[in-house]
Amino acid sequence: xxxxxxxxxxxFRDDLRILDNPALEAAAQSGGPVVPVYIDSFNRSNPxxxxxxxxxxxxxxxxxxxxxxESLGSRLVLRSGPAPAVLRELIRETGARxxxxxxRYGALELAEDAKVRSALIAAGVRTESFNANLLFAPWSIRxxxxxxxxxxxxxxxxxxxxxxxxxxxxxxxGKALPSPARWPESLALEELALEPAVDWAGGLRQTWKPGExxxxxQLSGFLQNGLENYPGARDMPAVSGTSRxxxxxxxxEISPRQIWHAVLGxxxxxxxxxxxxxxxxxxxxxxxxxxxxxLLFNFPETVDQPLRPDFLRFPWRDSARDLKAWQRxxxxxxxxxxxxxxxxxxxxxHNRLRMVTASFLTKDLMLPWLxxxxxxxxxxxxxxxxxxxxxxxxTAGCGADAAPYFRVFNPVSQGQKFDPEGHYxxxxxPELAALPVPWIFRPWEAPAALLTRAGVRLGHTYPRxxxxxxxxxxxxxxxxxxxxxxxxxx
Length: 490
Ligand SMILES: Cc1cc2nc3c(=O)[nH]c(=O)nc-3n(C[C@H](O)[C@H](O)[C@H](O)COP(=O)(O)OP(=O)(O)OC[C@H]3O[C@@H](n4cnc5c(N)ncnc54)[C@H](O)[C@@H]3O)c2cc1C
Description:
By secondary structure, this protein is mostly helical. It has 3 domains: 1-133, HUPs (Rossmann fold, 3-Layer(aba) Sandwich); 136-167 and 211-298, Serine Threonine Protein Phosphatase 5, Tetratricopeptide repeat, CATH 1.25.40.80; 309-482, DNA Cyclobutane Dipyrimidine Photolyase, subunit A, domain 3. The protein has helices at 22-29, 52-71, 83-94, 107-122, 152-161, 202-207, 212-225, 230-233, 246-250, 256-269, 273-298, 320-328, 334-346, 351-364, 369-379, 385-396, 411-418, 423-428, 448-453, 469-482, and strands at residues 8-12, 34-40, 77-80, 98-102, 126-130. A 5-stranded parallel sheet has the order 3-2-1-4-5, with helices on both faces. Strand 4 (98-102), helix 4 (107-122) and strand 5 form a beta-alpha-beta unit. Flavin-adenine dinucleotide is lined by residues 234, 242-246, 249-250, 285-286, 288-289, 292, 351, 354-355, 358, 376, 380, 382-384, 387-388, 390-392, 395.
């Protein structure tokens, strides 16, 4: 508990919500005034400083949090600068004796939080921190030998049988939050300059409703209309078969505990086995997020180093031209290009396409996984260091529980299987919209007359493939087998 009567600061970071926010609750229970604060302390030289799409979302999310706090008679104080110095200033201005926050788990964030904590304690200020953004603290789940897990299934089994299951979410911190006699100065949200100077965010605005209210609405809509069909629909990018909660989770606008208990509730009250199975399948995906954080915490170097060190010797290619074609969605493989264009237009890409496009970059083009991870980092609204690192290393074959390197996604058959009518391709690659199945998946093999009728001029209106998939696959496999040691490490 915070010291009675004196002000308590709530330092918001990736927990931009008022429901089920234990840091806010602890500050509210202290009995003194509550000072909610957000500090723009991003170090621009950090290679993983938030990317452009995340900064756009952050602007909207802070605006939403600020409104929610106002509805509780409070405010969100915005400051910018190094967090330790800003917090010291705020403590001086408000007389706060407690600072509360939700934990973060990346190496740089842990180091910053440790530094802040010791400076505050040295100044006689209490600190209270909470695991509010994960179901299981990343250090709490261990194998029987006490080691962190590297494989998902046993990790998830250990989570599900852990005696400390996620407790039910908390509610509002109260009807109103006590205010300080005098509010400290705040920057205006615009002064944080989070939104792009040149407005490219129209597609993002049309697609998303950032903020806690949007997150809760998204969850209820998914429980009502999506959960039951999740196992079958989750792999089909043309239908809205997944929850699309990832950016909301990224910013902590909703907690995994809220989602977990809502889904358990749906499982408990379900009358059909189908809903129960769908609920379990969905919880398992939340489990992948937990696994990603488990890896980030226990193997922090993996944000830019492969978990499997043998991959340090992999002969990645270097081609600015191929990288650009991939980024722009102009590889000549319609399914890949559709994914990359969905990302550019909406700041999000379906999971199936994340795997297909990442495989195309690392295997067909043999470009380094890190160059793909950095592009995703800048363009995804849900860019999350734990999930992005896991996703890229998994696909590239160099990470935990990775897809074997020799499993190379076929960019044509993946489209045929997961977008059988070609609807997803038609939506994102409109210049091919008049091509029928099966040519829409491989226009370079379509009869010339048919291309003409569909208004497609290869090399003009749509690119020819930048690689021959069969040859590129052989090249990637040869490089991979070249890594093999005499003792057969790979
Ligand atoms: C190369 C690559 C990069 C990725 N980068 C990110 C990223 O930066 N941020 C991000 O949130 N996810 C990332 N993912 C994981 C996954 O693609 C997204 O979480 C998912 O597409 C989000 O959509 P959804 O919320 O509708 O998912 P749903 O299927 O509805 O799943 C619900 C939640 O479970 C979690 N989840 C689902 N699948 C995964 C997964 N494979 N790994 C980890 N968590 C998962 C997410 O938090 C998601 O919101 C990446 C995957 C790959 C292959």
